[in-house]
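Hi again,

Forgot to attach this to my earlier email, sorry! This is the prediction with zinc ion bound. I've pasted everything inline since the attachment limit keeps bouncing my files.
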Amino acid sequence: MRPGLIIRSSSIHAAGCYTMLPIRKGERVLEYDGPRFSKDAADERYKGRVVTYLFSFGEQGEVIDGFGTAMFLNHSCAPNCETEEEENRIYITAIRDIAAGEELVYEYHLHDSEDEDAGCHCGAENCRGTMFSEEELKRRAKQARMRRRAPKQPRSRAS
Ligand SMILES: [Zn+2]
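Structure tokens for the complex follow:
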């Protein structure tokens, strides 16, 4: 692990990753590393699980099951990091100078999610109120329109 990174409780969500040393814009902070699966295998493995740390990327729909420090990075609508793909590896890179003591955050751009909603509580001025990507929001809006058009079905209750 990079020197100066610590995990401690975060005002955004549970635990977060903070830097005790300044980081320069453009520096690679961490690798998003962990076991890799195909998207289908990951879906099978995590069926019904609420919390996952899956990072999907690439055209084959490969998934990394986040393990280690990177899985503690929270989402923010005002990120100071972003993810970068290089030769099939994912890195988290600073997109601006980061001061000592700041929490490291990036935009999750969640998609393909079964979650009802992924509310964001990052507290940024420009908070979008969701961790879903723009594309995912559009996809969901379209689905909702289709559902409204469909004839009413008796609902089975989830227990
Ligand atoms: Zn937000």
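The beta strands are 5-9, 15-19, 28-31, 36-38, 54-57, 62-65, 74-75, 81-86, 89-94, 105-106. Helices lie at 39-45, 134-149.

That should be everything now.

G.
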